[in-house]
Design brief:
This protein is an alpha+beta fold and 368 residues long. The chain has nine helices and 19 strands.
């Protein structure tokens, strides 16, 4: 893996040099992890003029699920607790003889940016933009393998919940149980706060579980994800509680399922981000659901649960192969409830079988 991280750093360095900076300061945690393998909280990465340094506010932990930093990297630990690794890294860059430093301005606060400048006033600070995030969009097969295992864990946790008695239990209780099951099956932890929504809450995006109890006749929407070796996947399903769904529930479910299928089938290398959104959105629009639709129909996943690309109406760019994304349309009817269906997939060319579905829990409308 050391060669992988070295290659990633080399690619980022090339981008920095093309924009006029020989050195760069990486402070966004997901970007540090992508380029360094692992790092303690508050660590930054300095792509230096003479050597690369992982600058840590505290010594790296030996946490099995976080892994170890790239052994080819030199680690510089601050001598006193409470220091700012980004500020220290600027001083180290100056000590190496650098005259400029590219920084992640979208991550540094104004006060940290000022402190960096004051520590090394001889450095010309330049904006790195989202160069590191752009490198992270296309995943290698090792990264995809981590996502695949995370998806298997999430599928397993959800499947076990569906075999239990649900009526009378609260949304909050079910969410906590799902998160416990994720860890029991080998996840680092949940990829994001688990959403369990029942009855009139169902179908709402990012619903925060309440003490409402599951009742007969409810829609039950569940959205969860597992983190495995830092990589985060996502799955969302909607079920009916009781012996059989009502006609309106079947109709709404079939509509959202059709929208989700249209979005999934559009995932091919070269397709515009906005066209994936449009494929799913127009199915819902044509049925009269113009209001209250999600702002996007999917997004990238990886070291963060919501990363580029954004599959949204105004998104610019086109999909590449080996890009993992979610497709997650939903409709919520105020006062009645709704449906969300959410999968994590990897974009693959048609010659390789088309998009690879990572989350395989059935999308049949089950009555529980």
């Amino acid at each position: 893996m050391s060669e992988v991280y070295a290659t990633r750093r080399s690619r980022l360095r090339d981008r920095c040099q093309a924009s006029g900076s020989a050195t760069a300061l990486i402070s966004r945690p997901a970007n540090v992890r992508y380029l360094a393998g692992a790092a303690p909280r508050g660590a930054v990465l300095l792509l230096g003029k003479t050597e690369d340094l992982l600058v840590c506010a505290e010594p790296p932990d030996e946490r099995p699920y976080e892994g170890r930093p790239d052994e080819a990297l030199l680690i510089h630990t601050l001598p006193r607790p409470g220091g700012d690794a980004a500020v220290a890294a600027a001083g180290l860059a100056a000590a190496q003889g650098a005259d400029s430093l590219a920084v992640e301005e979208h991550h540094l606060t104004v006060s940290r940016h000022r402190a960096v400048h004051e520590t090394a006033p001889q450095l010309r600070l330049a904006g790195l933009g989202t160069a590191a995030e752009q490198l992270r969009v296309v995943k290698d097969e090792e990264e995809i393998s981590c996502l695949r295992i995370g998806a298997e864990i999430a599928d397993q946790a959800l499947g076990e919940l569906l075999e239990s008695i649900l009526v009378g239990r609260t949304e909050r209780h079910l969410a906590l149980e799902l998160e416990r099951r994720l860890v029991d099956h080998g996840a680092d932890g949940p990829a994001f706060p688990t959403a369990v929504a029942t009855g009139p809450h169902s179908g709402r995006r990012a619903h925060r579980p309440t003490d409402r109890r599951v009742e007969e006749g409810d829609f039950l929407s569940v959205c969860l994800g597992a983190t495995y070796r830092g990589y985060r996947c996502e799955i969302g399903r909607t079920f009916v509680i009781g012996t059989s769904p009502a006609d309106w529930q079947i109709e709404l479910y079939d509509l959202v399922f059709a929208a989700q299928r249209a979005g999934r089938e559009s995932l091919t290398p070269g397709v515009a981000y906005r066209d994936v959104d449009r494929a799913a959105r127009q199915v819902l629009d044509s049925a009269g659901h113009h209001e209250g639709l999600p702002s996007l129909m999917g997004h990238g996943v990886g070291l963060e649960i919501d990363e580029d690309p954004q599959l949204a109406p105004a998104a610019m760019g086109k999909l590449d192969a080996c890009v993992p994304v979610t497709v997650e349309p939903g409709v919520h009817l105020p006062g009645r409830g709704g449906v969300r269906i959410d999968d994590t997939l990897v974009v693959r060319p048609e010659a390789d079988g088309g998009p690879e579905l990572l989350t395989i829990t059935t999308k049949e409308l089950l009555a529980l």
